[in-house]
Structure formats: structure tokens, C-alpha cells
Amino acid sequence: MSSVTNLSTSGLQLRRGSRPVRSLVELLSSMRFAISLLVVVAIASIIGTVLKQGEPLNNYIDQFGPFWAAVFHRLGLFQVYSSWWFLLIMAILVVSTTLCLVRNTPKIIADLRSFKTGVREQNLRAFHDKAEADFALPRAAAVARIGAALRARGYALRLREGDGETLIAAKAGGLGRIGYILAHSAFVLICLGGLFDGDVVIRLQMALTGKQMLKTNMAIDQVPQRNILSPANPTYRGNISIPEGSSADVAVINLGDGSVLQPLPFTIKLKKFIVDYYSTGMPRLFASDVLITDHRSGKTWPATIKVNEPLNVDGVNIFQSGFDDGGSHLQLHAWPMRGAGDKGFAVTGDVGSTRQLSNGRSTLRLELGSFRLLNVENMSTGKTDKTDKGGLLRGIDRHLGAAVERGSSTKLTNVGPAVVYKLRDASGQANEFINYMLPIQLDGMPMFVAGERSEVGGQYRYLRIPADADGKIDDWMRLRAALADPDARRAAVDAYVKQALPANATKQLATQLEATAGRTLDLFAGDLPRDPKTGAPLVSSAGGLPALGEFLQRNVPKDQLNKASDVFIRVLNGVLWQLWSQERQHAGLPPLHEDEATNRYFNAAVLALSDASFYPAPLFLQLTGFKQVQASVFQVARAPGKVIVYFGAVLLILGVFTMLYIRERRAWFLLRDADGGSRALMAMSTNRRTMDFEKEFATLRAATLDATAMRRD
Fold first, then answer.
1. Continuous segment of H or E residues that includes residue 630
2. Nearest to residue 57, comparing CAs of 457, 635, 633?
3. Does the pLDDT of residue 3 top 70, yes or no?
């Protein structure tokens, strides 16, 4: 038998009111219902953890497809913690937990006050832990002795005198029952604080004041008043991006499908943004030297904001959350990737700006997306683990980035500045590019690396172009232009035929070799043979080695394919060597000398020419110079609910510890007169039986019932 009052898991049962209201209150106050809601919240939290939150919708479309992206979007899974159903569940959970407290707290308080002095002898004999003893002392003396022993061990006592008997009711550890109240109250407070500091207050304010979300990009000074919240907003959390030398006093609050602006009670001016790096190039420290101007007092003072060291101004915390480009000025050279031109032209612009590029026939819009001064990439080349998919080298192979096997080791290296830009055609279709400014050591030689992707969030596919002896890209660009020039190709074929055949070779042999070399070079250059009837290309590849391979597969028997491939590759290399020699001669460069370095450059250049057939843009923008302008990204938060959350967290810790480590114990001693002395019946109970309780029972029994021999039932 236990003396502890059991807390019911059923709901609060009202005696008045309509039946639906009584049923609703009983459901909401049911512990089973609260646990069910907690399970739903836990599942939602798992989804919010696994599924990246707050990404642009296009990223989710690329990841899940249009159908499932639309379904998940309607369910609010991309903004779980601010979705209406999650907030509704949290609100119901708060109500349910509050009703549980209302239902059980009076019982707990009453149980704490009660010493249960109404128990009878038969009740005590039904306890698991009980003992009896005979005393030589009279009943009054035995009562005093037992009472003193109990008080010495921290027990509170109540006596009940009866006809020839005395009942001592003792209890200790009652605070363990308070833990239930503390823990459940803490949960309510934490939920209320979280809801108050979330989107609920902002959305409620918008509904009451007619504010609307801004769903288009617009300069801050042009945003209409209906998209701007009140400066007296009691709670908000927004972001500010400030370039060096600029200032801001308005934060942007993202609300899923749009955003609103929040005026701040101060102005932040970024004097300087400081970034310190590890030797690997990974950022080690972010800090911002700022000037704060208070709008009410007009005072201005300097401050430094670091990661994990926020600045508090007028109850608003300013956190250093990251950094961005603040509109760096970029200098680029646009190299043609189509046609026989090799000069190109200069392009300048600031990050975030756009400009039109036109050749008179077509127009492209250049969108300068971002500039990164340091780029830390995994340059490991080990091949012990074929499952590795990481690192820059993973995407750099022939045909614009087919996967290659790379090792599981990690070698983080700073590969220097890079620019990310988009080229958008007249139909609105765009490809995104990332071009590294400096050559990167790949397979033992310097390469200019250019990444391309057609889908947002997709993997980059890389084109690598070898750097010439001067560390530049110019020699390869001239070779590419020469390959696109039919006259230059014919001249290279003639030079190859003269060099490959002896002086006494027949005209027929020279004609055959000339035709083979010309066809091979034309296929490689993308000048494809066409069907005389339909005019359609006879091969589907755009050019390069794939076009040559497809042509051979269609025109050469399988048993002769390997031999024919070797012949065509030798011819191709010979003609391209002559083309390269002529290009260098026209540029006024020294003649070629065959050595290991020259051959390695030539082989890499041939592969790059082949890959360039798949490059989706007519221009290659090479970063030639820059003037960096950094921007600091701050998160500003007015969160009065955090005090409630912190207080709730303290209560939760106290509640959990009291429930786990403070056990309620109750003991009863029924003493009766017997043969000039007295006889005592002892019983003891607890809300949690442990080995410690067994020891405490034995200790308490020895301290109180040691007058004579003791009998244990």
C-alpha cells in the first residue's frame, strides 16, 4: 500500500457548463492529450532539424521536384517553427499543461499539508516495509524517544492521541512533489516566452494594424509605410547587412513568403570589419568596429561587436552573425568562347550590379553575384576511399566536371579570390559561374578553374584551362580562337601533311592524309559534317573528343575501332601542334621546343579545348583585379521573452532535480500500552522504492525500535 496521492492522467471534469465545453476541457487537461501533442512537436522539431529552413523556394524545387516542393510548402515544412499549425499546437500545449497544473496542484498542495494521521492498524500492517517492537518504557516516554529520533533525521511530525494509543505520523522530502509543479510551470513559461519572442506578436500586430509583407526586392528608402512595423514593436528579430563606411537603422524581418522592415532606436555605422584566419584559410575571428548613435539622446559612441559577444543598446541585442560582400569593385576581362576572336574586352562593375553585354546580334545580362577573397577548398588527391564525394577536385575532370575518384583524406587549401556571376539570355534562362582568379595546382601543374551550373543549389561542373609559361590564360585563348578559324585550321592541316610525309610521297597519299586530318580537326572544332538532304549534323556531340569518338563509332567497324582511334588521336595531336605553332608565330612568341613541360601543357590544353565544346556561355569572364568592400551582417533582437524563458529554464532544472533526487518518505508509529511498557508498530512508504530507501528503512528502524528484541512481519 502506498500513501502517496496518485496524479490522475484523465482530464479536468467540470460539473457545470454544456456537454461539449466539459468534454473539451477534459480533453485539453488530459495528460494523455498533452503527451500526444509533445510527440507531434517532437516530430515537427525533427523535420525542422533535418530539413534546412528558410531557403529560397527554387532550392526546394531543385531538391524535391515541383510537386513535392509545393506540397511541403503548403504544409509549412520550410518554415516549421513559424507555421500556423506549429504555433497552434504550441498554444494548445500551453493551455493543456496549464489545465493539468490547475487540476493537480491543489491535490499536491493538500497532500503536502496532510500527515495522514487517519490511518488504522490494519492499514499499517498492509505496508511492505513494517516492523514491530516491545519497549520497557511507558508509551509517553517511547513516543518522546521516537519523536526525537525522527526530528534528528529531518522528519516533521504530527501526533494523534487515542484510547490507549498514540500515532506518530512523520514525513520528509515533500519538496519532491513540488518538482512536478516547478517542471510543468517551467514548460508553460518557456513556451510562452518562445511564442512571445517568435512571429506571433509580429503577425498579430500586422493583422491589427493592416501591415503587409513585402514580396519584392526594393530599396529601403522606397518601401511603403504599409510594409514597415512600428518602432515601438515589443519583440522582433531581424537582420542588417552594412558595408564598410555605411550605416543603417532599419532591420529586415523575414516571414517566410515575404519580409517587413523594423525601424531601430539607433543607427549603426560600420567603420571596419575585421576577419582573422587560420593558416588553412578558415575564418577564426569575426569582429566589427562600429559607431552607435542613439536616436533619443543623440549620443554617439564606438563599440566592437564580436561573435558570441553581442552589444546591447536600448534593450536591443546586436549579434555578429556573419559577413558578406558590400559591393566590391571588380575588374574582369571577357574572353570570347565562340568564333575566331581572341581579344575580348574589359568589364567593370560592383558586386550586386547588372549590365548588358551585346555583340550586335545577341544580348546577355551579366549579374555580378558575389566576390570571395579567400576560398578554402579540399584539395586532397588520395585514392584510398572511392566513396569520397567532397572537395573541389571532385568536380574537376573532363567534360566539365564528371566525377573522379578522390581520397578520403582532407587537405584544406586557400585557392585565392573568386567571382560568382550569372549570364542571363533574352529568354530569362541563366547559368551561374564561379571563376577563380589565380591558377590552382592540379595534377602537378597550374590550372585556371571555372565552374558552371544551370540549377540553383546544384553541383558545379568545372572547366580547367592550363596556365602558360607566364602564368596567364592568353596562350590557350589564342589556341581556342585559332581552332575556331577555318583558315587557320586549313593552314595547320597543310603544315602537318608536309611535316608528316616524306618529300617523295605520292599526291594520292597526301590528299588522303589531308582529308583525314581536315575531317579530324573539323570534328574536334565542332564544325560537324551534315546530312546533305536534311542538313542535320551527323553526330550529336557539340565537338571535342566526344564528337570524334562518336564519328568513329558510326563509321568504323568494331574490330578496327581501337586501331582507328589511335591513328585519329595521333593525327589530331599532330595537327593541333601545328595550329599551336602557327598561333604562337602570329603572336610573335618564340617557337615551340618539345620537352616535358611543353608536352604536359599541350596535353592539358587539348583536353581543355575538348571540354570547352560543352561550355554553355559565349564569354569567359576572367577576374583581373578588384577593390574589396566588406559588409558585416548583424542580427538585431529585442527579446523580452528571454527573461521568461531563462526563469522557466531555472524552474525546469529545479523541478527535474527535485523530482529525481528528493524522495518523499512517510513513516508511522502506532504505540499502545502493553504489560507495563509499550508496543510499537512501524510502517514506512515512499513514492519511489530504491535501494537507498531500503537502507533508510533499516537505519530508521534501528534508531527507533532498539529497546528490545524486534519482530519483523
1. strand 630-638
2. 457
3. no
For residue 671, the model assigns a pLDDT of 92
What average pLDDT does range 77-86 have in this prediction? 83
Cell 504599409, located at residue: 226
Helix (H) or strand (E) holding 569: helix 561-586
CATH topology of domain 215-234+236-325+631-638: Tick-borne Encephalitis virus Glycoprotein; domain 1 (2.60.98)
Q: Which residues does 170 contact at the CB level (< 8 Å), separation at least 6?
A: 115, 150, 155, 156, 157, 158, 666, 667, 668, 669
Alpha-carbon 678 to chain mean position: 74
| Residue 713, pLDDT score | 39
Report how far residue 7's alpha carbon sits from residue 184's, in angstroms, rounded to the nearest whole number. 13
Distance CA 267, CA 246 (A): 10
DSSP H helices, 484-539, are 486-500, 507-525
Separation of alpha carbons 701 and 682, rounded Å? 8
Nearest alpha carbon to residue 45 among 6, 7, 83: 83
Structure confidence by residue, pLDDT tens digits, 224-251: 889 989 888 899 989 999 999 999 999 9
Segment 134-160, tens digit of pLDDT: 888 888 888 999 999 999 998 999 999
Distance CA 418, CA 451 (A): 10
* pLDDT computed for residue 688 by the predictor: 78
Confidence (pLDDT) at 692: 83
Q: In Å, what is the CA distance from 6 to each residue of 3, 177, 250, 446, 687?
A: 9, 11, 55, 76, 9
Query: What percent of the chain has pLDDT above 70?
Result: 89
Q: Where are the domains of the chain?
A: 121-172+667-713, 215-234+236-325+631-638, 329-470+622-629, 479-618
Q: Which three cell numbers stand for residue 102?
A: 490547475
Identify the three-state secondary structure at position 144.
helix
> Which helix or strand (DSSP H or E) is residue 441 part of?
strand 440-442
Q: Are 304 and 272 in contact (CB under 8 A)?
A: no
Output the pLDDT for position 392: 42
What rounded mean pLDDT belongs to the chain? 84
Which CATH topology does 121-172+667-713 take? TATA-Binding Protein (3.30.310)
| pLDDT at residue 7 is higher than 70 | no
Residue 544 has pLDDT above 80, yes or no: yes
Question: Residue 707 pLDDT > 80, yes or no?
Answer: no
C-alpha cell at 425: 539570355
- Residue 164, helix vs strand vs coil: coil
Cα 407 from chain centroid? 25
142 vs 674: CA distance, rounded Å? 12
| Three-state SS at 617 | coil
Tell me the pLDDT band of 10, cut-offs 50, 70 and 90. Answer: low
- Please give the pLDDT value at position 32: 80
**Adjacent-strand bridge partners of 528:** none
Cβ density class 401-430: b for 16+ within 10 Å, e for less: beeeebbeeeeebbbbbbbbbbbbeeeeeb
Side-chain-side CA neighbours of 707 within 13 Å: the count stands at 19
Q: How many helices (H) and strands (E) does the chain have?
A: 18, 26
